[in-house]
Design a protein that fits this description.
alpha+beta, Beta-Lactamase, Alpha-Beta Plaits, 6-stranded antiparallel beta sheet, 5-stranded antiparallel beta sheet, 24 helices, globular, DNA-binding transcription factor activity
Length: about 725
């Protein structure tokens, strides 16, 4: 009972810690916004901050209020008091707290109290959550009344018992909303200024009470949870249960002996065969020390069921996200360097059957947030896109041709279908347009938003899908602004020309994609190939020069799309003028590579390393807080706003080890500390570090060369 009560309190505090850590990474606390915030004139930003704080406060009943502390402005901002300016002494107290503690810490004597709330328990977290450019702190105040009520409700003995929390110095943190009872005062006097034992007895008011203590430590806190239960209430059910247990045990023992005597010979032969089969495989860890054959079989069977169910659940949870991430990479061109057979093989691993298929792609975009009839407003873009994806998935679930629906997280949704190659193009186009029309009408009707869809050209291979996707996205700009919903057909909108072109568009697209991804060697090689193909196709030197100028303009456009200024690569030097002034055309690709492509790719790699380190630092902070929960690479990648592949590669690059190895080492070190410093059972320790007991024993033995029980005995 004590363990469950204390674990519930720790779970509530840990939930506040995890939620606070996630809040500090919210874009609303971006340093560039907060440091430039004018508390007197930026009314809109302050109002948005109030709304966000109110939403955060209402997520947990234990949270009384949330302050945003701005050190530079010496001010506290919350949705109840507004903006409160601190005097010099108050500001120094808060800065001293932040300086003397970690980025995340608790205080149970918070110095700055407004009014007579008595709420002195608070959690402070540095802002921003990335630990860079710290400009203040997020202060989460715990409602002492609600916290005390929760502690009091854990008293199993009702009004006769007691339940409260003590500080290390013996003072009471809280005793609930009621006044302090005589029993609680007697307990505090007994425990004050003495070492707290785990259990003791106390005589008070003519009764004997069993007192249990449970210490738990949070960052910067050291509390003891105390419960007192009368011995009379404890022993009442035990007397009846003990008699019942003795009677049932006696009957069961007699029956077991009788059955064993009658059936042992006939049962032992099949049991021996089963044990022989189990011995050929790895036995369950908990069955290694069991001598009874039936127990060995039962333990192994339960172990295999747990492992199978665990793996099946994990696969089912992560499979939809993995499939969507793969389609996102395929459509955006990140898999362009794979062969067609490799892409098909990977898709077959996701249970997609793609034999002799042709593909149709549609890109849908939703708009109209400013209209009064819409259920969404500005700021709800992500929610609207998520709702549109769900509607389209439900609408197209009946079609076996559907491969998947992709959310591009920019108010656009992709829908990919695969048809047999035997289907005529006219029939394929009409069927696909009918499906797109149904989806457009349904999304527009339910969400009350404007929907524009573009249907890409039919493709015969998966490698061509990224070009169809980019063309479809660009075609969205041709929508009719006077129409609410519309569908644009690429073949009708942009008809193919009959005249042969002399410009190598395909090589240009591949080179621009390599430059966009920051791949130095591939970009330089494709630039040379582009130049060679341009010479082969062109009739004279002027066409070569014009083609290279066009290629340079496309490169500048790609660099601008990546968020960089191409003029900053060579300040004071115009690359266009340099190309025009070059007399030897063979120097044109050299100038492009050395003046534009190589500096840009090197700058991207440098910025990417910084970004990856910040992203990995955020994931590490999350792991150290939530290592006991069900962690996965996909979940951490989703929290960090990236793909599992990118996070895995960045984690290996920054930390020097894989994600799984780091999480395993972190959990094993925590388990080792619990084995040395606590008397918790092995199963309880396994759950605290995020493992099932059977799997925990196997991993621990692999890490330290011995079982957890042997480790504890050796360190005793």
């Amino acid at each position: 009972m004590l363990e469950r009560a204390a674990s519930r309190i720790e779970e509530q505090l840990e939930r506040i810690e995890l939620t606070t850590t996630q809040w500090t990474m919210d874009p609303i606390f971006d340093p560039s916004k907060m440091l430039s915030l004018n508390l007197k004139t930026d009314y809109s930003e302050i109002h948005n901050l109030y709304q966000s704080l109110m939403v955060m406060r209402n997520t947990n009943p234990l949270i009384d209020k949330i302050d945003v502390y701005l050190a530079g402005s010496a001010a506290l901002i919350n949705d109840t008091d507004g903006i409160v300016y601190l005097n010099g002494e108050e500001n120094r107290q808060l800065q001293s707290l932040m300086k003397d503690n970690d980025a995340l810490f608790w205080v149970d004597d918070y110095p700055l109290q407004r009014g007579n709330t008595g709420d002195t328990i608070a959690l402070l977290h540095d802002l921003p959550g990335t630990y860079a450019n710290i400009y203040g702190s997020l202060v989460v105040h715990v409602n002492s009344r609600a916290f005390g009520k929760m502690v009091e409700e854990m008293n199993a003995d009702g009004e006769q018992g007691a339940s409260f929390i003590l500080r290390k110095d013996g003072t009471m943190v809280t005793a609930g909303p009621s006044s302090v009872t005589m029993l609680e005062r007697a307990l505090m006097d007994r425990l004050k200024n003495t070492d707290h034992p785990e259990a003791l007895r106390i005589h008070h008011g003519g009764q004997t009470y069993s007192v249990s203590l449970r210490s738990f430590v949070r960052t910067n806190l050291s509390w003891s949870y105390v419960t007192a239960t009368s011995m009379e209430n404890l022993t009442k059910p035990i007397d009846l249960m003990s008699k019942l247990i003795v009677g049932i045990s006696s009957i069961g023992l007699f029956i077991a002996i009788l059955l064993a005597w009658m059936a042992s010979y006939r049962l032992y032969q099949p049991i021996r065969r089963l044990l022989g089969l189990i011995a050929k495989k790895d036995a369950a860890p908990e069955a290694l020390e069991v001598r009874d054959e039936l127990s060995v079989i039962e333990s192994h069977w339960q172990y295999m069921n747990r492992e199978s169910q665990f793996l099946q659940d994990k696969l089912e949870r992560n499979l939809p996200a993995l499939k969507e991430a793969f389609l996102l990479q395929l459509l955006q061109g990140h898999l362009i360097y794979l062969q067609e057979e490799d892409i098909v093989s990977r898709m077959e691993n996701f249970d997609w059957a793609l034999v002799d298929s042709q593909y149709m792609l549609a890109v849908m975009q939703v708009r109209g947030f400013s209209q009064n009839m819409s259920s969404f407003t500005e700021g709800d873009e992500a929610l609207a896109a998520f709702a549109a994806v769900n509607i389209i998935e439900e609408m197209t679930e009946q079609y076996p041709e559907r491969i998947g629906v992709v959310n591009f997280h920019d108010m656009t949704v992709g829908m990919l279908f695969a048809y047999p190659r035997a289907v005529p193009p006219e029939k394929l186009k009409s069927e696909f347009l009918a499906v797109v029309g149904e989806c457009v009408d349904k999304v527009g009707t339910l969400l009350k938003l404007q929907v524009t869809a573009t249907v890409g050209n039919r493709t015969q291979t998966l490698k061509e899908l990224h070009r169809a996707y980019h063309s479809a996205r660009q075609s969205l700009q041709y929508r009719d602004l006077h129409k609410v919903h519309q569908i644009l057909d690429m073949e009708e909108l942009l008809p193919r020309k009959v005249a042969e072109t002399t410009y190598p568009f395909e090589l240009e697209k591949e080179a621009l994609q390599a430059i966009r991804m920051g791949l130095v060697d591939e970009s330089l090689e494709l630039t040379d190939r582009f130049y060679e193909e341009l010479i082969r196709c062109s009739g004279n030197e002027q066409e070569v020069r014009d083609g290279m100028q066009q290629f340079l303009g496309s490169i500048h456009h790609t660099i601008l799309e990546s968020g960089y200024n191409p003029r900053s690569l060579n300040p004071g030097v115009s690359t266009f003028n340099s190309l025009s002034a070059t007399k030897d055309t063979s120097m044109l690709p050299v100038q492009l590579k050395e003046q534009v492509i190589r500096p840009h790719c090197e700058r991207m790699m440098k910025d990417r390393d910084i970004h990856l380190k910040q992203m990995v630092d955020g994931v590490l902070s999350y792991l150290h807080v939530a290592y006991s929960s069900d962690l996965s690479l996909e979940l951490c990648a989703q929290n960090a706003g990236t793909t599992p592949h990118t996070l895995s590669r960045a984690f290996k690059q920054v930390v020097g080890t894989t994600f799984i190895e780091y999480v395993t080492d972190l959990r094993m070190n925590q388990a080792r500390i619990l084995l040395q410093e606590t008397d918790l059972k092995i199963n309880d320790i396994a759950e605290r570090v995020g493992y099932q007991p059977s799997y925990f024993i196997r991993v621990f033995k692999k890490s330290f060369g011995m079982t957890p029980g042997q480790y504890r005995e050796e360190r005793a």
